[in-house]
Amino acid sequence: TTTADCYVVALREAGVEVPDPIVDPLLLEINQGSWAGLSADGLAAAGREQDAVLARAYRDASFFAKPTDGSGESKLDVLRRSADWLRVLEARHGSAKCNVLVFGHGTFQNCVELLLKCYPDKSAADTFNRNPFGGSHLRRGEVHILTPLHVQASDADAKL
Predict the structure, then answer these.
(1) What is the rounded distance in angstroms from the CA atom of residue 152 to the CA atom of residue 149?
(2) Per-residue pLDDT for 141 more than 60?
(3) How far is CA 121 from CA 76, 114, 118, 124, in A?
(4) CA-to-CA distance for 63 and 2, rounded, in angstroms?
(5) Which run of H or E residues covers position 13?
(6) pLDDT at residue 116 tops 60
(7) Three-state SS for 62?
(8) Secondary structure class of 8 (helix, strand, coil)
(9) Element holding 44 (H helix, E strand)
(10) What pLDDT does 120 receive?
(11) What angle do CA 21, 74, 144 make, to 5 degrees?
(12) Mean pLDDT (the chain, rounded)
């Protein structure tokens, strides 16, 4: 079960018509590769000092850092993937004047925000900034509207 599936069920139970979700691999969260589950200190303790240095650089806003073994993605890799997704989204829905509900995760969402210039006063590094408590400028578990919604007038509204 995906996050989208849970929301689709809830929306349908509330009487909202929504199509079946499409799981798009372009929306996946950053692939940490061989770093997955390990902190920078954990990498160093495992004898992977160069990876530990790169993991610290990643945490400190590097857009290029990723595992030395070639697995995983850098933030720049995710930015490219996010740009590809935005082009696909525009091709699929750009002229449809419809709302598209998207479920993504932190790094991917930060990439989309950066590409759409949602926070023009923030630098690229600040858009990805995480505080020591694991939060960011995004409020977890809340809806974030990145572009204006398209609202269709109901028949009753059209008669007014």
Answers:
(1) 10
(2) no
(3) 20, 11, 9, 10
(4) 28
(5) helix 3-13
(6) yes
(7) coil
(8) helix
(9) helix 40-45
(10) 81
(11) 40
(12) 82
